Amino acid sequence: MSASDKIENSAEDLKGKTKEAAGKATDNEELVAEGKTDQAKADLKKAAENVKDAVSE
Q1: CA 27, CA 21: separation in Å to the nearest integer?
Q2: Could you tell me how far CA 36 lies from the centroid of its own chain?
Q3: 3-25 and 29-56 helices cross at what angle (nearest 10)?
Q4: How far, in Å, CA of 34 to CA of 11, rounded?
Q5: Which of 3, 42, 51, 55 suits a disulfide with 13, CB 3.0-4.6 Å?
Q6: The pLDDT of residue 41
């Protein structure tokens, strides 16, 4: 996994956590769901990159 991929995934995860927290604070279930979706996307990308790294080793 390249450094830029790690940074992008971390940024997407942080964005998701921020959305989720804001949604909880404002009682906005849609924003909470969007935040969780963003976090899940980041997790999937991270997992895919880990698989690529494992295969290339």
Answers
A1: 10
A2: 8
A3: 160
A4: 15
A5: 42
A6: 95
User: Average pLDDT for consecutive 10-residue bins of the chain (57 residues)?
Assistant: 84 96 98 97 91 83
State the burial class of residue 44 (Cβ atoms within 10 Å of its Cβ: 0-12, 13-18, 19+): exposed
Burial class of residue 28 in the structure, from the number of CB atoms within 10 Å of its CB (0-12 exposed, 13-18 middle, 19+ buried): middle
Encoded tokens for 52: 């690529």
Q: Residue 42 to residues 25, 26, 46: CA-CA distances in angstroms?
A: 23, 24, 6
Going by C-beta distance under 8 Å and a sequence separation of 6 or more, which residues neighbour residue 43?
A: 13
Threshold 0.85, pTM exceeds? no
